[in-house]
């Protein structure tokens, strides 16, 4: 991990259980291991979702933007607790509140995922998420995750 807290796909794969085609975080640009993470998802036209959403006018689905933010939240949760994934902890997407979509996300876009830890109570974690493309807001929401020991 670099001084900025950046890490690559190898560390992401070690922390998240998701795999292609459902792994939606390509790299982490920065992470302070306490309250914030900045991750990236590169949107490419050859992703399987674009065969059906929508042929001739591909738009990255809003629900997958929310999932990408939830995955970034899980990465931040692992960094905050310094827990070892797969051993005892699993972060589950428990809910989303206040989701707003402001722009379409298209093939060729780089989706910047910004997540901030807000609070934790009895294993329920709340994060604020924001996804943007070239500094323009695409989506904002509150992500709720449940931390479970397996």
Automatic annotation (TrEMBL):
Q: Which GO terms describe its cellular component?
A: cytoplasm; membrane
Q: Name one GO molecular function term.
A: (3R)-hydroxyacyl-[acyl-carrier-protein] dehydratase activity
Give the annotated active site. Answer: 53
Enzyme Commission identifier(s): 4.2.1.59
Which EC class is this protein assigned?
lyase
**Location(s), subcellular:** Cytoplasm
> What InterPro entries does the record point to?
FabA_FabZ, FabZ, HotDog_dom_sf
Q: Which UniProt keywords apply?
A: Cytoplasm, Lipid A biosynthesis, Lipid biosynthesis, Lipid metabolism, Lyase
Q: Which GO terms describe its biological process?
A: fatty acid biosynthetic process; lipid A biosynthetic process
> What is catalysed by this protein?
a (3R)-hydroxyacyl-[ACP] = a (2E)-enoyl-[ACP] + H2O
Q: Which family does it belong to?
A: Belongs to the thioester dehydratase family. FabZ subfamily.
Outline what the protein does.
Involved in unsaturated fatty acids biosynthesis. Catalyzes the dehydration of short chain beta-hydroxyacyl-ACPs and long chain saturated and unsaturated beta-hydroxyacyl-ACPs.
What is the protein named? 3-hydroxyacyl-[acyl-carrier-protein] dehydratase FabZ
Q: What are the top taxonomic ranks of the organism?
A: Bacteria, Pseudomonadati, Pseudomonadota, Gammaproteobacteria, Alteromonadales
């Amino acid at each position: 991990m670099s001084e900025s807290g950046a890490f690559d796909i190898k560390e992401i794969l070690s922390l998240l259980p998701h795999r292609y085609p459902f792994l939606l975080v390509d790299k982490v640009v920065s992470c302070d291991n306490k309250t914030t993470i900045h991750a990236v998802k590169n949107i490419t036209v050859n992703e399987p979702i674009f065969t059906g959403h929508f042929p001739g006018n591909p738009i990255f689905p809003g629900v997958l933007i929310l999932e990408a933010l939830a995955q970034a939240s899980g990465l931040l949760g692992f960094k905050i607790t310094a827990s070892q994934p797969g051993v005892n902890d699993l972060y589950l997407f428990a809910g989303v509140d206040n989701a707003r979509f402001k722009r379409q996300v298209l093939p060729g876009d780089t989706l910047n995922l910004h997540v901030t830890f807000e609070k934790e109570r009895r294993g329920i974690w709340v994060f604020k998420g924001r996804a943007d493309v070239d500094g323009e807001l695409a989506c904002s929401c509150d992500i709720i995750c449940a931390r479970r020991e397996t």
